[in-house]
Design goal:
CATH topology of the largest domain: Cathepsin D, subunit A, domain 1
Distance between the termini: 23 Å
CATH class of the largest domain: Mainly Beta
CATH architecture of the largest domain: Beta Barrel
Largest sheet: 10 strands, mixed
Number of strands: 22
Strand content: over 45%
CATH superfamily of the largest domain: Acid Proteases
Order of helices and strands: EEEEEEEEHEHEEEEEEEEEEHEEE
Strand order of the largest sheet: 4-9-3-2-1-11-10-21-22-12
Structural class: mainly beta
């Protein structure tokens, strides 16, 4: 079954509207949660916990600054093909295979969380693709020499709020150029990403690559189309 949902990019975060309520779309979270014990998408019904690592719908709403009823994580998103069309404000999801023309990007995954290979200065970096991240992240030493882009307050489940200085970093994803605003994760969190299996400089590619373009995200086939 194929279904189209209203899509919103608000305050640096990606939301879909389901039955008149907003849900945060987060490919970087292994499991979703919500104020409701279930959510139905494209005819598929999913059972949800009330929280993830202590983060509830109420605290999530406070952190992102947008009232929402929960978060759709990789356990839910990984069951569908997706086409994100931010310009048109819609997300198409399907239990069947969808297609989208563009540059093909290979997706690896860890616990259902997608990993892409990004080139920075000609060097490859394996990084998580996290639509729940309002900015991207790299180790601090990798950011040296890039233009400063101000300080940002962000949050991470199990860590809470933190502040980071950011830089504008020119990157290439299978030849497609992007400018990513990158910060540095708190020490223990950055170390946990490295231990999770990313190679080289661990990091996160945030949802900026969804802005002003149509992106096909097909986790079941390990492919993204830009």
């Amino acid at each position: 079954m194929t279904h189209t949902l209203p899509l919103q990019l608000r305050d640096g975060h990606v939301f879909v509207e389901i039955a008149g309520e907003l849900w945060l779309v987060d490919t970087g979270a292994p499991a979703g949660f919500g104020a409701s014990p279930t959510v139905t998408i494209a005819g598929e019904r999913f059972e949800l916990n009330a929280d993830y690592l202590g983060l509830t719908a109420a605290t999530l709403s406070e952190f992102v600054g947008v009232p929402c009823v929960g978060l759709l994580g990789a356990d839910v998103l990984g069951r569908f093909d997706h086409i994100f069309d931010s310009a048109a404000g819609k997300l198409t999801v399907s239990t069947a295979e969808l297609s989208h023309s563009g540059q093909q990007v290979r997706l690896d995954d860890l616990l259902g969380i997608p990993i892409v290979t990004v080139h920075i200065g000609g060097r490859p970096y394996r990084m998580f693709f996290d639509t729940g991240a309002q900015i991207s992240y790299l180790q601090e030493d990798a950011l040296k020499g890039f233009p400063a882009a101000g300080r940002v307050t962000d949050f991470y489940p199990g860590v809470g709020e933190f502040e980071t200085d950011t830089h504008d970093v020119q990157v290439s994803l299978e030849g497609v150029p992007f400018t990513l605003r990158c910060g540095t994760l708190p020490g223990l969190l950055g170390m946990s990403l490295s231990m999770a299996g990313t190679e080289g400089t661990e990091g996160i590619v945030g949802n900026a690559i969804l802005e002003k373009r149509t992106v096909g995200y097909f986790p079941r086939r390990g492919v993204m189309m830009l």
